Amino acid sequence: MLFRLGVAMVRFRWWVVGAWAVVFLVAGGLAPRVFDELTPGFGRANTESQEAIDLLAEKLAEDEVVLVVVVSHPTLLASDAAFRQGVEQTLAGLQGYPDLGKILTLYQSGAQSFVSDDGHSTYAYVSLKGGFDYGMETFDEVREKIVAPPGFEVWVTGGVAIFSELNKAAERDLQRAEAISLPLVLAALAIVFGALVAMMLPIAMAAVAVVVTMAAVYILTQTTDISIFVLNIASFLGIGISVDYTLLAINRFREELAHRDRAEAVGVTMSTAGRAILFSGLTTVVGLSGLLFMPFMFFRSLGIGGVTVVVASLLVVLTLVPALLGIMGPRINRFRVLRAAENGANGGLWRSVASWVMAHPVLVSVPVVALLLLLGAPFLGVKLGTPWATVLPAGAEAREGWEKVEREFGQGELTPIAVAVRTQGNVLQPEVVDALFDFTRKIAADPRVERVESIVTLDPSITKEQYQQMYAAPQLIPFPAVQAALAAYGKDDVTVVRVYSKYAVLSNETKALVQDVRQTSRSMGAGVTTLITGATADLEDTQHVMYSYFPWVIVYVVVVTYVVLLVLFRSALLPLKAVLMNALSISASYGALVFIFQDGNLEGLLQFTSSGFVEVTLPILMFCVVFGLSMDYEVFLLSRVKELYDRTKDNTEAVAGGLERTGRIITSAAMVLVLVAAAFATSDVIVVKAFGVGVALAILLDSTLIRALLVPALMRIMGSANWWSPRWLLWALPEAKVEGEAASMASSPSGGGPR
Question: Is 186 exposed, middle or buried (0-12, 13-18, 19+ CB in 10 A)?
Answer without folding.
Answer: middle
